[in-house]
């Protein structure tokens, strides 16, 4: 590791980017546990100070994918990636994914435990709060996924290298390029993705990385708090990326008759309470704003990934599914399957 740390950590005039092959060599060293915690932390800090290159990140993506558990391919699925720092607002993507799963479009959510210095709530914590069991063997996960068209991938469980470096990342207390690697390793080989970013500079990296990570159609959005969830009170920048190029656009909710207010910050318990109410089909005015965010985002994704013929058709379908409690039906089935599949200690 020392030689690679010297290459990237020699200051503005002496450092350089690693080649793809060099990044692959470093990734293998870290993945196999041959790098000490101090060396790994120093390497990650030096990379952050230098600025990560696309080839460097791609080397780690390819290597960490090789060390992941061998899930079968679900190429027709939609991979949803949100803020690494956790959620500070109502997590729109959960009911949206349930709604879309109810019409047969498989949805893959993923993430890990919250890090100590994070202030947001992880999707894992929220789904556990809704009764979904996470500690499930690969074959059982695949069986459940086929049954309900939705699943959550616990990154540290399916990719051991991330579990190995978790303590280092906790102690650093800083965001690193591992945050991006974690989002796009794509262990089930999804061809579709929606990913949230907080800065446009990250869009430029992802334009290069996503097609090489196996995604045929990907939408990069600057959503609420860096998430994949678009607000209904203002326009949002989006970027559609395919292997043949990319295009920029913006989405104005007013164009489609959506008017709302910014979502309010809330903690874990309140997020779970709101989720339960929306998913169960509560049509009270008190949660109108959250419900409209769900309808808007579900309609966008249905149209973007060719499940309906127009935005308007997508919004109409999403509203109908929510009213018929289709999201709740999927959640109930998912909850039941996960509890039956939960890993139990051997006797």
TrEMBL record:
Residues 11-66 form the Glycosyl transferase family 3 N-terminal domain. It comes from the Bacteria. GO terms for molecular function: glycosyltransferase activity. Keywords: Amino-acid biosynthesis, Aromatic amino acid biosynthesis, Glycosyltransferase, Transferase, Tryptophan biosynthesis. InterPro entries: Anthranilate_Pribosyl_Tfrase (IPR005940), Glycosyl_Trfase_fam3 (IPR000312), Glycosyl_Trfase_fam3_N_dom (IPR017459), Glycosyl_Trfase_fam3_N_dom_sf (IPR036320), Nuc_phospho_transferase (IPR035902). Residues 86-324 form the Glycosyl transferase family domain. SUPFAM superfamilies: Nucleoside phosphorylase/phosphoribosyltransferase catalytic domain, Nucleoside phosphorylase/phosphoribosyltransferase N-terminal domain. This is Anthranilate phosphoribosyltransferase. It comes from Paenibacillus agricola.
């Amino acid at each position: 590791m020392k030689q690679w740390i010297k290459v990237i950590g020699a200051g503005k005039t002496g450092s350089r980017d690693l080649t793809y092959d060099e990044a692959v060599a470093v990734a293998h060293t870290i993945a196999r546990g041959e790098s000490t915690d101090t060396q790994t932390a120093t390497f990650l800090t030096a990379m952050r100070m230098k600025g990560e290159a696309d080839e460097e990140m791609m080397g780690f993506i390819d290597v960490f994918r090789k060390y992941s558990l061998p899930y079968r391919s679900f190429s027709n699925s939609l991979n949803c990636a949100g803020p690494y720092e956790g959620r500070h607002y109502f997590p729109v993507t959960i009911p949206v994914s349930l709604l879309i799963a109810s019409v047969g479009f498989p949805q893959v959510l993923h993430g890990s435990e919250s890090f100590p210095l994070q202030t947001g709530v992880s999707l894992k914590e929220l789904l556990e709060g809704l009764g979904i069991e996470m500690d499930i063997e690969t074959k059982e996960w695949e069986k459940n996924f086929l049954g309900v068209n939705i699943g959550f991938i616990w990154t540290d469980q399916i990719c051991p290298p991330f579990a190995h470096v978790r303590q280092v990342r906790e102690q650093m207390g800083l965001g690193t390029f591992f945050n991006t690697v974690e989002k796009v390793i794509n262990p089930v080989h999804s061809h579709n993705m929606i990913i949230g970013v907080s800065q446009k500079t990250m869009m430029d990296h992802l334009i290069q990385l996503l097609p090489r990570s196996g995604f045929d159609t990907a939408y990069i959005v600057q959503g609420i708090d860096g998430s994949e969830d678009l607000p209904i009170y203002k326009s949002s920048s989006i970027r559609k990326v395919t292997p043949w190029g990319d295009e920029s656009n913006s989405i104005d909710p007013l164009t489609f008759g959506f008017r709302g207010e910014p979502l309010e910050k809330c903690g874990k318990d309140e997020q779970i309470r709101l989720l339960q109410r929306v998913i169960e089909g509560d049509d009270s005015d008190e949660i109108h704003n959250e419900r409209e965010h769900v309808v808007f985002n579900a309609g966008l994704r249905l149209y973007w990934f060719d499940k309906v013929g127009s935005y308007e058709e997508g919004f109409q379908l999403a509203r109908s599914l929510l009213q018929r409690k289709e999201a709740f039906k999927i959640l109930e089935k998912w909850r039941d399957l996960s509890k039956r599949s939960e890993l139990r200690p051997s006797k």
